[in-house]
Amino acid sequence: MRPSVKRVLIGSVAGSVVLGGVLVLLPPDGGGKAKPPALGPAGRAMAAVGAGAPAALPDLAVLIGEREAQVRAHPRDEQSWAVLGSAYVARGVRTADFRDFPKADRALHTSLRARPEGNPEALTGLAALANARRDFRSARKWGELAVKQAPKRWTAYPALIDAYSGLGDAKGVGRALESLQELGSGTAVLARSGQVYRDRGWREDANAALTDAAALAVAPAAKAAALHRVAELAWERGEPTVALRHYDAALAADAEHHPSLAGRGRALAALGRSSEALLAYRSALAKHPLPEYALELGELYESLRLAPAARAQYDALRTLVRQARTRGINNERVLGLLEADHGDADAAVKRLTAEYKRHGSPETADALGWALHRSGESEAGLKLVTKAMDKGPRSALFAFHRGSIERELQYYGASRRHLNEALRINPYFSPLGVPAAKRALAALGEPPEGGPEEMYAPEPAPHVTRPTRAVPRAPDGARDGD
Which of 13, 58, 216, 417 has the highest count of CB atoms within 10 angstroms of its CB? Predict the structure, then answer.
């Protein structure tokens, strides 16, 4: 039986105070009459950072300035070092300025050196930093240490959920979510619950949790993040008009919320408003140059037959990945997707095989399966994209990849079924993938009336068959979720 979505919120992060540089979560008073003291900018940022929730950039700037001054005056203050490091992580994620990450690493390890034991704040910060760098194994290590030191401290569990998700460990996600829901409540818990429900394919539960999180969020940054997730759900089920409305609402709450700006470009492109879509994407990239935005913009340019502009974005993506790598950030999956479709498919296989061994999530399985297909190893690829569909969320892209590979392998009935499924899930899922799916279905035609014995499409063009590689094994955490 699915767990019910929590709708009653008590003891939320808004009811926290800051005493001596320590975030203290106040329990409900029972009568509900007393109001928590109002928080200043630093207190608001600390409350958000402590809960793993987005914080406003001006509030983060105040908090960082205060903690920097504190550690200069008191270099052995492990609590201030932990808060400072976590604030650097939060700012780096918000701004996509990854120069904050090395500073966060130094601050959090300084906190641990000052207090090696009984320091779950620093450990939780290191887990959040590792997640931001997409180093999910390290995030799991730090998160599990934080939980071991303070198992009743709910704020460690969101980072642990993200780590298990990145490793494809569904059972680990379930255990961590159960602990989070038992120990905590509030907008941050609802938001994390909604994301897990989405990954499980529980769309109604996900929408309920995320809608509640958006309605109950007080801080503009938290409201924008929740509204963005609601928009993403609408996008994934093929409702670009609804998605656009929520992306706009997120940007109204927080104009600097770059994921919603890129999402707005995606929705506008689906609605045929290409000029506005290009403007939204360019604005997102100018403010927050992330490789995934460059890939989406490049593919939009390519769909509009603007090949030079598309190539420029693909080149920019490679540059962004190289720059991020110097800060310890892993963008191997998005680079592998680029190479599979627009570059060297063999190089994509090598890159994504290594990534899958590190992080065996459904998304990585799908990316590697597609790269194997693009490099001529469709049998091996089909095994992985099938696993991605079985273990991952309901995804139009996963279904498209599977249907395309099945067509190559002459499994025409299955191909027709999965290509149609991709278009049913989201008829706008990709500016390049949607036309490709429609062309493939047109070539397959309708199944003949004679039934399965006559279900054959025309003979495909001859192609070279390469030796099939063994499908790599996912890491231990991913196998736990099988």
Answer: 13
Average pLDDT of span 461-480: 51
Radius of gyration from C-alpha coordinates of the chain = 23
Q: Could you please report the per-residue DSSP string of 288-317?
A: S--HHHHHHHHHHHHHTT-HHHHHHHHHHH
**How many Å apart are CA 397 and CA 29, to the nearest integer?**
48
User: The domain that contains 414 carries what CATH number?
Assistant: 1.25.40.10
Q: Structure tokens of 443?
A: 């070539």
In a domain, 405, yes or no: yes
Measured distance CA(119)–CA(51) in Å, rounded: 16
Closest CA to 155 of 296, 28, 33, 50: 50
Question: Residue 346: pLDDT band by 50, 70, 90 thresholds?
Answer: very high
Q: How many domains does the chain have?
A: 1
pTM, rounded to two decimals:
0.84
Structural domain harbouring 369: 340-480
Over 70: is that where the pLDDT of 466 sits? Answer: no
Q: Is residue 178 part of a domain?
A: no
Ramachandran class of 311: left when φ > 0, alpha when ψ lies in -120 to 50, beta otherwise: alpha
Is the four-CA dihedral 274, 276, 279, 284 of positive or negative sign?
Answer: negative
Express each pLDDT in 72-128 by its tens digit: 999 999 999 999 999 999 999 998 888 999 999 999 999 999 999 999 999 999 999
Single-letter amino acid code for the residue at 77: D
* Among 365, 459, 374, 340, residue whose Cα is nearest residue 410: 459
Asked whether residue 422 is domain-assigned, the answer is yes
